[in-house]
Design a protein that fits this description.
The protein is of the alpha/beta class. The protein folds into 2 domains: about 190 residues, Vaccinia Virus protein VP39 (Rossmann fold, 3-Layer(aba) Sandwich), CATH 3.40.50; about 110 residues, Putative methyltransferase TM0872, insert domain (DNA polymerase, domain 1). About 45% of the residues lie in helices and about 15% in strands. It is built from 14 helices and 7 strands. A 7-stranded mixed beta sheet has the order 3-2-1-4-5-7-6, sandwiched between helices. Strand 1, helix 3 and strand 2 form a beta-alpha-beta unit. Helix 8 crosses helix 11, helix 9 packs across helix 10 and helix 12 runs parallel beside helix 13. The protein is elongated.
């Protein structure tokens, strides 16, 4: 996946509306601020932050997806501030700052959601809306794909993974169904996995008894496992206090309770240690108007803290 896909131009046009943009626009920054967008994606939030940045400011954007970095470079080309982009996991944020000659930042920001470009990329295998290769690696340099996990883990290992990372109550039924299916044929595609999950849950793949698709939680669990998402988030949060200037801020947008809990606990621990002051006593969520306009924002929660 190192080469650009044949439909790259189409992917680059995939609509991606940054969530909680109004709150992001309200974060006041000095003209010469140093901003680190740890999940630059296509540059949506970075463009918002950059509106108040002058020519002496620095915007460092990190992402593991090279396609997103190419699009971000195009979208941010007209900014007056210095833009630095690096293909780096935010778990390695300290090394990324050091490599780019940055000592400390005024803002560290992370949007933990998957962007529309990645969902639309059939090589990623992140979406259950259409049939794709079962992969789920946001970083194509990673060795283990979702297909390898699904086809190699034992029943208990699969059930635990789906329960712990997907909070799926029917994890044992789904794991058992996966084991039975792969005895007949290797599971290679997202459509195959969706059908297996729905068979276990005794529902149709087109079922909409609840707001979310029957495969949502299992797909979430596999994506988290493949990309070590929770572990990497903990590393980002652990590094942040040493990388923020006095009165510098860290803001994180999460999309499920596992992420939000990690952020909440970290901020509270740092507050108790006299390191942070928490700005958001309760997480910021999308307004009714934003939820209507951008359904992706429904589960978004933003928490922010200030370095003392």
């Amino acid at each position: 996946m190192n080469n650009m896909p044949a439909d790259f131009d189409e992917l680059s046009r995939a609509e991606h509306t940054p969530v909680l943009a109004e709150f992001a626009a309200g974060i006041s920054l000095k003209e010469d601020a140093v901003v680190v967008d740890a999940t630059i994606g296509c540059g949506g939030h970075a463009k918002i932050f950059a509106k108040s940045l002058g020519k002496d400011a620095v915007l460092l954007g990190l992402d593991v997806d090279n396609n997103c970095l190419v699009i971000a470079r195009q979208n941010l080309a007209a900014l007056s501030c210095k833009v630095l982009l690096a293909r780096e996991n935010f778990a390695n944020i300290a090394q990324a700052l050091q490599k780019n000659g940055i000592e400390k930042a005024d803002l560290i920001f992370a949007d933990l959601g998957v962007c529309s470009v990645q969902l639309a990329d059939e090589r990623r295998g992140l979406s259950f809306e259409k049939d794709m290769k079962l992969d789920m690696r946001l970083d194509d340099r990673l060795e283990i794909s979702a297909a390898e996990i699904v086809n190699s883990r034992d029943e208990k290992g699969l059930a635990d993974l789906i329960y712990n990372f997907g909070q799926e109550r029917a994890s044992r039924k789904i794991a058992r169904s996966i084991i039975q299916a792969r005895q007949k044929k290797k599971i290679d595609s997202t459509a195959e996995l969706v059908n297996i999950i729905c068979h276990a849950l005794k529902c149709s793949p087109k079922s909409r008894k609840s707001r979310i698709h029957p495969a949502t939680k299992t797909f979430q669990a596999l994506r988290i496992a493949v990309n070590s998402e929770l572990e990497n988030l903990e590393k980002l949060l652990a590094a942040a206090p040493n990388l923020l200037k006095k009165n510098g801020r860290i803001a994180v947008i999460s999309f499920h309770s596992l992420e939000d809990r990690i952020v909440k606990i970290n901020f509270r621990q740092n507050k108790a240690a006299g390191i942070y002051e928490i700005v958001t006593k309760k997480p910021v969520t999308a307004s009714p108007a934003e939820r209507l306009e951008n359904p992706r924002s429904r589960s978004a929660k933003l928490r922010m803290a200030v370095r003392l």
